[in-house]
Write a structure and sequence with these properties.
single chain; alpha+beta; Archaeosine Trna-guanine Transglycosylase, Chain: A, domain 4; Methane Monooxygenase Hydroxylase, Chain G, domain 1; 2 domains; 5-stranded mixed β-barrel; 9 helices; 6 strands
Length: 279
């Protein structure tokens, strides 16, 4: 769901500024139209967000590169493609400040023009390379079907997501919406963010959904096998306990069966070799 600030920008045809501050994040990738909470602890970035809220509420969310020191480097190096977003609200917690951002547009960071007290970049908006036709329709249908199966198998994913995805009738936004809801590895999400051709983006998402579905099915099979094993063990334990109770009622719980006692008595009467007797 788009918030009012984003709707206003779209309705007015408002363009992004050429220069925006960067909010570097460790493991999050935000997509256009999607809303995401970001935990911010560094004072310099909290001051940046405060400044943004006093102006146009716009900033760039860009993921930090793993190499070259990662988040420990100052200033941290970020991927060259990020997302311009609108800051919707701040919530202070004991762990830090949660900054809620809604993505507006993919952007390319062309140049860092300032690094103190935080990075400010010159940017260029990136636009989807649109595709249409029967093949795209078939790919979207496949995407919806795979996504539904994954949601059905995942107790942590609300079933409403399926209908939400059905309401997205464009291939690019559909791919973005689905990727933003799934637990995808950070670099794969970044790759999807950088893929402007919507057909290629959808192809990558379908590939990931197929892999994820196989993992989900495998996990379910393993859980079922474990459950059956536990059920069998519990049943055997229950039967053994029942048998003990019956033996106790009959007064034979600690006694050997009569047949065994008779054999022992016969053996004791016979003179057996010492080695055999010890056995």
């Amino acid at each position: 769901m788009e918030h009012q600030e984003v709707k206003d920008m779209e309705e007015k045809g408002q363009k992004l500024p050429e220069v925006l501050p960067i909010l570097p994040v460790r493991d999050s990738v935000i997509f256009p139209r999607m809303v995401i909470p970001l935990m911010v602890r560094d004072e310099e970035y909290l001051k940046m967000v405060d400044q943004v809220l006093q102006t146009d509420k716009l900033l760039i969310v860009a993921m930090i590169k793993e190499a070259d020191g990662g988040a420990d480097r100052r200033p941290p190096q970020v991927h060259h493609v990020g997302t311009a977003g609108v800051v919707l609200k701040l919530t202070k917690t004991e762990e830090g400040t949660v900054v809620v951002v809604q993505g507006v547009s993919r952007v390319k960071i062309q140049e860092i023009i300032s690094s103190e007290p935080f990075q400010i970049a010159r940017i260029t908006p990136l636009h989807d390379i649109e595709r249409s036709g029967k093949e795209i329709e078939a790919m979207m249908t496949s995407t919806w079907g795979l996504f539904k199966q994954i949601v059905d198998l995942s107790p942590h994913l609300p079933s409403e997501l399926v209908q939400l995805s059905r309401n997205v009738d464009q291939p690019g936004p559909l791919a973005d919406m689905i990727v933003s809801t799934l637990n995808m590895e950070r670099n794969k999400k970044q790759e999807i963010l950088e893929t402007l051709d919507v057909k290629e983006r959808l192809r990558k998402v379908i590939l990931f959904l197929n892999e994820e579905l196989e993992l989900q099915k495998m996990g379910k099979r393993i859980q079922e096998q474990v459950r059956k094993g536990i059920d069998k063990s519990q049943r055997e334990y229950y039967l053994r306990e029942q048998l003990k109770a019956i033996q106790k009622e009959l007064g034979i719980d600690k006694e050997e069966p009569p047949e065994i006692q008779a054999i022992k008595e016969k053996l004791e009467k016979k003179a057996l070799p010492e080695a055999v007797a010890q056995v």
